[in-house]
Amino acid sequence: MTNRSDFLVKIENAGIFRSSKWLVRDVSLEVSQGQIVTLIGPNGSGKTTTAKMVLNILKPDEGFVISNTGRVAYVPQKINVDWTMPLRVFDFMKITGDLSENDMKENLRLTGVERLIYSELRNLSGGEFQRVLIARAIAKKPELLVLDEPVQGVDFNGEIALYNLIKQISDTLNCGILLISHDIHFVMSSTDHVICLNGHICCSGSPSSVAKNPSYIELFGEHTASTLSLYKHHHDHSHGADGRIEK
Amino acid sequence: MFDDFFVRALIAGIGVAIVTGPLGCFVIWRRLSYFGDTLSHSALIGVTIAFSFSINISLSVFIVSSIIALLLLSLQKRTQLPGDALLGLLAHSSIAVGLVLIGYLTFIRFDIMGLLFGDILSVTINDIYIIWFGGALILIILYLIWRSLFAATVNYDLAAAEGMNPDRSNIIFTLLLAGVIGISIKMIGVLLITGLLLIPSALARNLSSNPSQMVLLSIVAGVISVVLGLFASLEINSASGPSIIVVALVLFILSMLVPSSDRLKKN
């Protein structure tokens, strides 16, 4: 479905070398319009580093990055807002580009935090902060959206809603999404392409092919693989061709 | 009107305070107070160079401080020395080098106290032009890089990812800081410039709930400090720099008595 030549961003054989070791090496990936690419891997496997190469925050020490878009939005893993800076959600929403108050409210409503528009950022809870970060990124109407563990600290129901929102955004904006996620369920149900990372690319491909890959199972254990199959068979009903529920 | 030295000092001082207000906010947000100190200490070398080659003090201070600032930025990337140690090293060596150089320049009469703490008697009409035109230039440039600098201050990665070019605005901001030191050295003196950058902005933080409010209040507080400080300086014959900083300090203490919006919310 995706045309090889019209990727939004592409990195090839890229690696970052710091303090006499490679944080990641030999990573190649590309993200195209309307595609959701997910990076999974254990802590310290270089997911965030890879995302930063894609975003041009870190210049790779080997390999290269080609970007075809200037409209990028980023949800970083962590932002610390210092006490010295009086920053409200309202100010934070337009930090890298103008945004009307209506658009702002609309996007905050999508992530369920419209009421916090005039609150100080540093007074928000972890989950509220994530919702603001996601709203801000979506409000930019990006072509490429990079989300680094976007639902951390969000309550369980909120997590599902936000993942659904991300899926919906990829459809409505037709943007490319690079997602770093631990949520195997979402990864498996909505992602087009999964890359399993552990300092290098262990395996990659469609979610179901990755789940069967021995190096994935070695990294995450049979357990997640079986959770996955459980998940797949956990519906107690099925849908007919017209969407009607059939027992 | 400009014939009166006191009027000249007032006009110059108000000009300085208008520029230090917004820059001071960034100094606080970015935790650059020691960085500012280091730059202003290096200004002493700039002053001696200005006297030796009879060039304009503000220009010479700006150039020397810029060089020290860029040196510092590149050293920070190259050495393992922690940032504060590096700043201390440069701050004290540059003030030492400055004082040694002054010792050599026996053919010029120096008012060291004036250099260190400011001297309102020395403000000329020329200085007023430099402060107001230089200051206007600094504020225009700050306005142009505002969004990028502000984004980079909140989060470097976010700014870099979304095309805000944070490295460029960081360097430009450093040069603006050197420029402020250049234009305010005569008024406030080498040792106290950072105080005028910091204290009004710290005061403004106590009273504000958003960034633009903090910038505006910082300017207002700076202007009040300068005006009251200069009157005090005239009245009790104290050095202008310390008088201005003492007023700023008193205002800061008063601002802590005002219940902040934060504390109000909790009740």
Cα distance spanning the termini of chain A: 33 Å
The helical percent of chain A reads 25-40%
In terms of per-residue confidence, which ranges of chain A show pLDDT below 50 for 5 or more consecutive residues?
226-235
Largest sheet of chain A: 6 strands, mixed
What's the CATH C level of chain A? Alpha Beta
- Beta-strand fraction estimate of chain B: under 5%
* Share of residues in helices of chain B: over 70%
Rounded to the nearest angstrom, the distance between the terminal CA atoms of chain B is 52 Å
Number of strands of chain B: 0
Q: Main beta sheet of chain B: strand number and arrangement?
A: none
Discrete helix count of chain B: 12
- Identify the overall geometry of chain B: globular
Q: Biggest interface, and residues per chain? A: A-B, 27 and 25 residues
Integer average pLDDT of chain B: 89
The CATH topology of chain A is given as Rossmann fold
List keywords for this structure.
heterodimer; A: 247 residues; alpha/beta; Rossmann fold; B: 267 residues; mainly alpha; 12 helices; 82% helix
Q: What would you say this structure looks like, in words?
A:
- The complex is a heterodimer of chains A (247) and B (267).
- Chain A has 247 residues and is α/β, with parallel strands linked by helices.
- Chain A has eight helices and eleven strands.
- Chain A has a single domain, classed as 3-Layer(aba) Sandwich (Rossmann fold).
- In chain A, the strands form three sheets. In chain A, strands 5-6-7-3-8-9 form a six-stranded mixed sheet, sandwiched between helices.
- In chain A, helix 3 (101-110) crosses helix 4.
- The model of chain A is unreliable at 226-235 (pLDDT under 50).
- The model of chain B is unreliable at 263-267 (pLDDT under 50).
Give the topology, please.
The complex is a heterodimer of chains A (247) and B (267).
Chain A: E1 7-18, E2 21-32, E3 36-40, H1 47-54, E4 62-67, E5 72-75, H2 89-93, H3 101-110, H4 126-139, E6 144-148, H5 156-172, E7 176-180, H6 184-190, E8 193-197, E9 201-205, H7 207-212, H8 214-232, E10 238-239, E11 245-246
Parallel strand pairs in A: 3-7, 3-8, 5-6, 6-7
Antiparallel strand pairs in A: 1-2, 1-4, 8-9, 10-11
Helix pairs in contact in A: 3-4
Chain B: H1 5-29, H2 33-52, H3 57-78, H4 83-104, H5 112-117, H6 125-154, H7 156-161, H8 166-188, H9 193-207, H10 211-236, H11 240-257, H12 261-266
